[in-house]
Amino acid sequence: MPEQQGSRLQQLDAAHHLHPFTDSQALHRKGARVIDRGEGVYLWDADGNRILDGMAGLWCVNLGYGREELIQAAERQLRQLPYYNLFFQTTHPRATELAATLAGLLPGDMQHVFFTGSGSECNDTVVRMVRHYWAVQGRPERKVIISRHNAYHGSTLAGASLGGMKPMHAQGGLPLPDIVHIDQPYHFGEGQGQDPHAFGLERARQLERKILELGPERVAAFIAEPIQGAGGVIIPPDSYWPEIQRICRQYDILLVVDEVICGFGRTGHWFACEHYGLEPDLMCMAKGITSGYMPLGAVAVGPRVAGGLIDGGEFFHGFTYSGHPVACAVALANIAVMRDEKIVERVHTDTGPYLQQRWASLADHPLVGETRGLGLVAALELVADKSDNRRFPGERGAGVICREHCFGLGLVMRAVGDTMIISPPLVISRAEIDELVDKARRALDLTYQTLNH
Ligand SMILES: *Cc1c(COP(=O)(O)O)cnc(C)c1O
């Protein structure tokens, strides 16, 4: 695409397009970055620059760009049946096949799925489903859902309410009633100087204290991401999840796990639940379920809640595009490729450990206070002083400076405050991992120069 075309698009974009999660004035000063095409783990912008996509789009393009199997599955389905719904005692072949395929992949004894169009819609579904479930059990007072500060569960009213992003709550009067938050298990950010094991237990036991404070008879569910994604790739200490699961069982609280990022191989397992030994009652999936080629979400439902829903009369809930046939066809093709090419095994035994080993080598950089990761997701913390992990003052914008240097070098790396995060396509090769880590180090060097001027 010629350069003129890029700036023409930027002008049209500024004139007509309001963007999600964007400060419009800041965007208009710079002009939007126009991403034009993709192949494998690479993107090309409108000026022809090649960029290694270290974020797999928004944590979703797990098989990389340009996969013929997914494209052809979509095309075949568009010809056969481009749309039909699942309401009112109807199904279509791809939704049924996908539900059965997922049942064979889900952790624990989960055997049912409810389709949606996105991760946010999964979490809206969760709120309605758990409250409906308890009402069907004759316990309508069990309404409160406990989540965590700095969690991300999407951007609809329920998704943003379950999420713990304060700036999101401040816009639009959230959270919704009967959604409360406890602290996150973010050791680097909130537990400096404490033993990680003890810190993990302490954060988990906040759940117990919150349940007792509210009264266990009022609490419906606890929801969390196994590893917080948008919050900054926050990996809890190993003591955290077993204690959370114990508390949920002891007080008969439903456990809801949001696997929208972690699911479909990101951690080197089909689901992070397997890594942490979790047996959730409900589990949210989206993003990697189609490698982002089509919008789709699904809530996996364990036997307890499924039984309640099946016996509970009509559940007045669903979306026009829930389980869209083209999205389901793409999801089936996506899962077939993942199985044929043993993608999850490769992340578990080969590329995941390789990325983690290379990523950990960045820890010696003067700007880096910590590196962490699992499978093909990782983070590093930018600090002003390594000796005490002191942060830069927020207004320096160290994370944004680093992110912009990454773009300049042809790498997408995301900044969450001063935490730099990556989540590359699961098909990334060792050579491409080398390129990613080399570019990250060069970006850190440039960031160091910028910040010390
Ligand atoms: C992205 C995300 C969501 C929201 O999914 P959308 O498809 O953007 O609605 C929910 N939960 C988690 C953990 C996510 O990362």
UniProtKB/TrEMBL annotation:
Query: What CDD domains does the annotation carry?
Result: OAT_like
Identify which cofactors the protein needs according to its UniProt entry: pyridoxal 5'-phosphate
Q: Name one GO cellular component term.
A: cytosol
Q: Which domain of life is it from?
A: Bacteria
Q: Which InterPro entries match?
A: Aminotrans_3 (IPR005814), Aminotrans_3_PPA_site (IPR049704), PyrdxlP-dep_Trfase (IPR015424), PyrdxlP-dep_Trfase_major (IPR015421), PyrdxlP-dep_Trfase_small (IPR015422)
Molecular function in Gene Ontology: pyridoxal phosphate binding; transaminase activity
Tell me which UniProt keywords the record has, alphabetically.
Aminotransferase, Pyridoxal phosphate, Transferase
> Which Gene3D superfamilies does the record cross-reference, listed alphabetically?
Aspartate Aminotransferase, domain 1, Type I PLP-dependent aspartate aminotransferase-like (Major domain)
Could you say which protein family the record assigns here? Belongs to the class-III pyridoxal-phosphate-dependent aminotransferase family.
Put simply, this protein is called Aspartate aminotransferase family protein
| The organism of origin for this protein | Zobellella taiwanensis
